[in-house]
Amino acid sequence: MANEVVFADAYERDLTKLAEYEAIGGYAALAKARTMGPQAVIDEVSASELRGRGGAFFPTGRKWAFIPKPDQNPNPHYLVVNADESEPGSFKDNEIMARVPHRFIEGCLITAHAVEAKWVFVYIRGEYTGPYEVLVAALEELKARDDILDGVTIVLHRGAGAYICGEETALLESLEGKRGQPRTKPPFPAVEGLYRSPTVVNNVETMATIPPIIDIGGAEYAKLGVPDSRGTRVVSISGHVKRPGNYEIENGTSVRSLIYDLGGGITEDRPLKAVIPGGSSTVILRYDEIDVGYDFNSLLALKTAMGSAGVVVLDDRCCMVQLGIRISEFYEHESCGKCTPCREGTRWMTQILRRLEAGEADQHELDLLLDVCDRINGKCLCPLGETAAIAVASYVDKFRGEFQQHVDEGACPFGESSPLHNVLAPVAMHTHSPVAVVPA
Amino acid sequence: MSAPGTVRLTIDGIQVEVPKGTGLVEAALAAGIEIPVFCYEPRLGAPVGACRMCLCEITPGPPKPQAACTLQAADGMDVRTALTSAVAAEAQNATLEFILVNHPLDCPVCDKGGECPLQDLTFRYGPGNTRMTFPKRTFDKPIPISPLIALDRERCILCYRCTRFSEQVAEDGQLVAVNRGSQTQIATFEDEPYRAPFTGNVIELCPVGALTSTTYRFEARPWEIQDVPSVCGLCPVGCNVEVTTREGKVKRILSRNHPEVDQGWLCDKGRFAHQHLNADDRLRDPLLRVRRRGFEEISWERALDEAEQLLRGAEGRIVTALSGSETVEQAYALARLLRRGLGSHAAVLPEEVSDALDSFRVPLSAIADADVIAVLGDAPIVERAPIVELWIKQAKRNGARVVTSLDDVGEASNAILIWCGPGAGGGARVAALAESARAKGAFYLPETANARGVCDAWAAAADTEPANPDPIGLLIVSGDEAAANPDVRALAEQAERVLVISMFHGLAGGWADLVLPGTSYLERDGTYVNLEGRLQRLRRAVIPPAPDELVWISRLAERFDIAVSPYPSAVFAEVSPIAFGGIPFGIVGDLADLPPATERHVPGQSPDMAVSEPSGLRLIRFRPLFSGPAVERTPELQFQRPLAEVEISRHDATDRRIRSGDDVTVSSNGTSVTLRARISDDLRAGVVRVADEHAGDLQPTVDLST
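The joint structure predicted for all components is written out below.
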């Protein structure tokens, strides 16, 4: 954790306070950016090779460059920040907003400057009451600071508890007051986003990474990490590790190191069985696949991804069928209901998995499960259903023997002893959050 | 590569050239290839790509099947449908398998069975068996979302056509999707009944049997019905309809898309009011008033004797009150008999009609392309010519400005005037206004379905100026609109004898000496002229319970040695050269053309727009869409009758601190009515609107108080 960027100084000082943040040079990057001009800022970010931290890993500078110039499209530009972090296994944005709200806001303001937006909408997950209050307080402190805000309005909008609203177009629909369902693309948000106007949608961590990039320069930032995965990444390590939590790592750190160095190893020193590398929607890694760099290319070689950087560690007592049910139930619960394969397919997947777990499934149902996954994958309107299918299919693929055992033995070999209660909140725990108290 | 304005692409190996902007579904059709769809419906706005039925392999593009319905044809595109692509075939098969996983297979008892896109597409693209071994998802069903529509949520495949219609076409916002994922359901907002003028369209839009008509449920199977293409006769729009009949009864009415007139939408009155054909008080036999005994049913032969006597007894002192719902042929036949035969020219026409607007004639669809629409006349359009309201909404979505004063038209290159209400001078005044505003087109919305056609036909029979007889020897009341008209009723007081032609006992009783049963527009062959000036063809869907008007007029005319054909085609052949440029009956097509606009007159003096502002508010009493003899005789439509409310402009409401929902007392000259306020942005200041049936004895100038 030598080269902290997002969380720099955040463990030594209370950076939720504006004065503290300014004392370490906060908002200087913003001032610098404003002297640079929008295109220069975009160029600097492009030079940093920063890629979106929300999960799709799209080059940030290129995304900004897609925004049409005012003479091409007279509509206002918008910056929308996706703070609807809802991927099971990911909780990094929560801590970023709670710990370094001003760095995050500064990133938003620099981005607004770069894409010439006067409005910033932060769509924050409804259950994130803590970070929400921190942001409210931070914005309150900034109220009188025209030198910082410079005519930009930042709006906090709380989500109402839908995973799909983390998908950028569904988020925009929801923000417009409509039912949160994804739109077809094209048109892409850069051309027709919020209120059919050019819109940049960026993740919280991406925003919090912008000030340091402007501060030290894109080239300097790009010295961190490995090719195609520059800089640092905040990873959320959870599951059966001794020290779960968020850790800012340099991209390219090995997965083994994440589990055994940062996470402190498996609880009770049990054997590792598998690890989900990038949140619930990514292809699972077996215990023997962890000597791999935590970066885009290395994980791609194993057909998986960093995703939203939720590293979920599973020990040897975990039943992969039960894990499949947990994931499948989540996606069934969160499917928005718009497109057919996701809406009907995730429910069907859950039903088959439950039969497998109960030992009631015939051999052909195991093949049917894979076929259903295959029929969802690549057919959906947005990635929600597809990732559910990819994730579950990867459990079968990598632990086929265990699935086969369920069929052959007519029962789950793990039964009640599978300690999934520590891994990824089950659907039943997705309750409505209390309403945050908004400071007057 | 391709001609300007067009693109060339390949679909299943077939090259097609289509206009730029053409969707892939239509481009494929041009190549004679089907791309199957459920959710795709261009009339509902931008495609949503929800159902995934249209997945095709498309290059260039990502290496997975694409939702073809969301894409537009582009130069060099290579589209491979299920016909030539195993990937597309597999994807489409998968979509159908997923849909059928939870769709109940109750096709044998489903109204949609036999005319169901889900059945058809499953037949062509779907799996022949099921791999689903679990209990299907169940919901309570059917749920009446209104007295007209039943919702079966198990059958629903969530294509969101109905909610998109409600949200993006009718803009009533009442149909919504609730819950999420596989538990998503269609519902009405707050579970209130779906009460709006155009609700029935969602039944036709539904690609499965999820939304069915309560009046058609379990009434027929598609293979034992006959559809008759005709035209709705309940308002001056003249929506093109398909009349479904079974065993000589009208079972339902569907839209028959005329892209220039109705775009395939129908109002609920046009769709459901056909039940008046079978009303309890429908007249089947002629009635004669017998002193002190009231009415007596008589034979047709006797009725013609009595009619002949009435006509002869009046010695030419005859006044004819016309309804505006007669066909051109009926009106002409009646005029032949009365005007040319008996020299009785006096008539109460349904409306004053002028040909001045013919030079501003454009199709209704031109409204959608207008940049400014001036809505004048103050009466509510949706109540008089509902489809016009949908065209205006579409224009608004396209970015048009809608104004209620001619002064606000400004420098518009494509302005359209619509006059709805009194004071149009039969359209002449509207034409003058259109001239001064340099409008591209103008409409006057008459009150009755065929006012123009009836007036033209009446005029075509003779050109003698009528002399008003005094006293009136015989008043002939032709049809139910005339029978319900208070002015006609007043005239009847002065007439020595009254002959009424009416469908219903309720309208004819009391004041007639002789009643001849009338027929409905669904029972007639002939022509109507709609508010655009478009001559459209009515076709007899069912045989009326009594001889139709033409038949007995012809026989009555024989007694006066006047030749009137009992056949609409022959009557039309006579009137057409005089009134309709000689167009043959057979040419009035199923999708009738609009005659070209006539040459503009030299602009005369600019019309007098000075309106004397009265001290109070001007009350517009209007006849609601859901009123009249046909609606009164359709029980399922009663919930649609107008609420007891007063529509107030935002300006006047703000002035008086009135909010929507407030109880407001509307008063004039010592009489008052208390109504709920509804604030309207479509109404200009100084005007309030109340439905006739709630306006009591209110005078034209009113005050409001809370």
